Amino acid sequence: MHRIIIFLILSMSNIKIYSQSSDYKKEKKINEGSVFTKIIKRELPAKIVYEDDDVISFLPLKLQAPTHLLIVPKKEIYTINDITEADTNVLGKLFLVAKKLAKEYGVSESGYRLTINVNEDSGQSVFHIHMHLLAGKKLGNMTSSKKKKN
Hints:
With 150 residues, the protein is of the alpha+beta class. The protein is built from 4 helices and 5 strands. It has a single domain (19-135), classed as HIT family, subunit A, CATH 3.30.428.10.
């Protein structure tokens, strides 16, 4: 019961709660001014493939598939856990941009994967929401589908 009350109080406040290990937090430096924000402000170079007032898309430094794009809202939001109702339109726009880029890159019919990592266990490495568009080969299962033996 106490945990529920504490959770409700914290979730209604502006206090940010991160469940990452302390080593992970130190390594990833959760704070304003992500590497993506620096790309948006043109403080760092990137191969930009799409940009409008709300969203930017560019090639990542390390490709994980033949077609791999990052689709990023210009508004700096750390994780999905930090979104608000006010972010509804920009988050929807990420998907519309993904659809447009998949068509432009010729992968809309063969198939593509969209992923958004959230926090440590998913492997989030930049604390600025971003969607990966992955395509250009058979990507396989997202996780192991091994059945438990009785």
